[in-house]
């Protein structure tokens, strides 16, 4: 009997060896797959077809600092009377903006951005006179309607984020101005402005919206200064005033 079933017994052992070998391979492959999955964890992509749309709408808030770039005339410091100004500077004051935005897709890398913003500025001109060092400053609190026209270059999207640069111009129209009662005859400025703008930002996609912080710089191209009809001490030493603003925008689309 032993001789009769000798090969059958070894055939049975071979089946067991093959079975346990295959089981061991499956176990090793499973551990390897689990380790790979832990190393390359799946990350959910939000709104993955966002760039397929041509137009996007949103709103924004802006917080920053605004001032005048003061260009002095040749008369500065030339006088010796009590009404001769020694220095004229414009410190930065808080600025706030709120508005809507529209983003048009041009190509895979370029967009066109525009919108309508309401901006609140408190630009100040600070005078120092020869015999009156503590003279009050000229504060101009005003509300502006602004329309930015920007070209935007965006990087390739990596997961739920990407960087971008934008640059262009901004058209501004002053809606109203509030002057100090004592300064109505000191300094006057124009009610329209054209500015050069550029900025850098970061887009982060979430489940229901896209959040975009951006740091933007604005340099006024228009001379805001209006020469006075009378030769007063506050304006005769100024040749040119240009608006300058630095703003951190928080945009939601």
UniProtKB/TrEMBL annotation:
Pfam families (alphabetical): OMP_b-brl_2
Species classification: Bacteria, Pseudomonadati, Bacteroidota, Cytophagia, Cytophagales
Outer membrane protein beta-barrel domain: residues covered: 55-225
InterPro entries: Beta-barrel_OMP_2
Species of origin: Arcicella aurantiaca
Name used for this protein in its record: Outer membrane protein with beta-barrel domain
């Amino acid at each position: 009997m032993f001789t009769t079933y000798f090969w059958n017994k070894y055939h049975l052992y071979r089946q067991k060896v093959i079975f346990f070998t295959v089981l061991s391979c499956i176990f090793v492959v499973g551990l390897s797959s689990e380790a790979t999955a832990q190393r390359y964890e799946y990350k959910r992509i939000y709104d993955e077809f966002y760039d397929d749309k041509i137009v996007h709408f949103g709103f924004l808030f802006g917080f920053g600092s605004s001032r005048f770039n003061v260009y002095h005339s040749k008369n500065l410091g030339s006088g010796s009377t009590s009404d001769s100004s020694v220095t004229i500077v414009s410190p930065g004051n808080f600025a706030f903006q709120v508005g809507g935005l529209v983003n048009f897709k041009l190509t895979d890398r370029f967009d066109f951005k525009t919108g309508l913003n309401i901006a609140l500025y408190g630009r100040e001109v600070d005078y120092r006179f020869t015999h009156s060092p503590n003279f009050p400053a000229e504060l101009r609190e005003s509300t502006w309607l602004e329309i930015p026209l920007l070209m935007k270059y965006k990087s390739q999207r990596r997961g739920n984020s990407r960087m971008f640069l934008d640059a262009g111009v901004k058209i501004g129209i002053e809606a109203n101005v509030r002057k100090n009662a004592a300064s109505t005859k000191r300094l006057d400025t124009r009610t329209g402005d054209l500015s050069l703008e550029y900025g850098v930002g970061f887009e982060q996609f979430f489940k229901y919206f896209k959040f975009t912080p951006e740091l933007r710089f604005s340099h006024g191209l228009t001379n805001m200064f209006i020469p006075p009809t009378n030769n007063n001490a506050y304006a005769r030493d100024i040749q040119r005033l240009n608006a300058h603003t630095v703003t951190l925008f928080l945009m939601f689309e």
